[in-house]
Design a protein that fits this description.
294 residues, alpha/beta, six-stranded antiparallel β-sheet, five-stranded parallel β-sheet, 7 helices, elongated
Length: 294
């Protein structure tokens, strides 16, 4: 696999069984880490699917995930460790502590439920739900440790998602700096979907080194902002309302001090200039722009 220019990832779970009810790594962290390293594994995903002793506390489970990570690094210091400690703490007081702990010993950790159902009708609610779950977790994200919103292009196009749904997901994932892991039959992806997944500007925003921390609202339109590696700022507009709505924003709200700014739409490729910005979006729709002073 390495000779083909590929990385090698593998999946297991912290308990005695995986989500497919196959044997997992409970009680064998050191042994499995050594085996994975001997196989040349670059990426290890450790799930939480049960198979744990009765009465397991969150603190104890946290230490098991921490220990597994230490074993993985012992045999391969360059391994990427992905895990799901926070998943079963969603909605509980233990959720943020689980994320905080994960940021200390893992490279990425899931902060939202599995994507589903994978239908066009559920695409926007799922994407916006994942955004809401992650929006306040930016203090725990940074180089080497990231909040993970789950896979991109999940089963596209068989899922029934439209290209607009895929653009919405990629835009949210990029602003939240979520790792971009494709979960689809790449050979079956249409050219427009491949182009979206390979969009260099989008990837640069995702990999800029920061998760969005600045958010403003007008009407039902939410605007998320962070630095754009291509210059200026990246701004994601999201309609959180139940119907079509219009948001109006002044340039100072974007940190623009000039009288005029330019806006480049990452998906249409259209550039416009303006002295204030107005955007009309359908419910659940997004628009990702690069805004710069003129």
């Amino acid at each position: 696999m390495h000779a083909l220019g590929l990385r090698f990832g593998i999946y297991t779970a912290i308990g005695s069984r995986t989500c497919q009810n196959l044997p997992a790594s409970w009680g064998h962290y050191d042994q499995d880490a050594k085996t994975f390293a001997s196989w040349g594994v670059d990426f290890v995903k450790v799930d939480d699917c049960g198979g744990l002793p009765a009465g397991m506390t969150v603190d104890a489970l946290t230490e098991h995930f921490r220990r597994f990570g230490a074993c993985l690094r012992k045999y391969n210091p360059d391994v990427l460790y992905s895990q799901e400690l926070p998943i079963h703490q969603i909605g509980k007081p233990s959720f943020v502590p689980a994320v905080r702990a994960s940021a200390e010993f893992a490279h990425m950790w899931r902060v939202a439920h599995d994507e589903g159902p994978l239908t066009h009708e559920n695409a926007s609610p799922m994407i916006l739900g994942h955004l809401a779950a992650d929006l306040d977790l930016h203090p725990f994200a940074g180089p080497g440790h990231w909040n993970d919103l789950d896979m991109i292009a999940s089963n596209f196009p068989a899922s029934g998602w439209t290209l607009a749904d895929l653009h919405n997901q990629l835009s949210v994932w990029a602003m939240e700096a979520s790792p971009l892991l494709i979960s689809a039959d790449i050979a079956a992806l249409p050219p427009a979907a491949l182009a979206a997944l390979k969009n260099p500007h989008l990837i640069a925003i995702d990999q800029s080194g920061e998760q969005c921390a600045k958010v403003i609202m007008n009407a039902h339109i939410q605007a998320l902002m962070k630095s754009d590696p291509y210059g200026g700022i990246a701004v994601l507009f999201v309609n959180l309302g139940p119907g079509t709505d219009t948001g109006r924003f002044s340039l100072p709200q974007f940190g623009i001090t000039s009288a005029t700014a330019s806006g480049y739409d990452l998906w249409t490729g259209i550039t416009t200039t303006f002295n204030e910005f107005s955007v009309t979006l359908e419910a659940g729709q997004t628009m990702l722009m690069q805004i710069k002073e003129v």
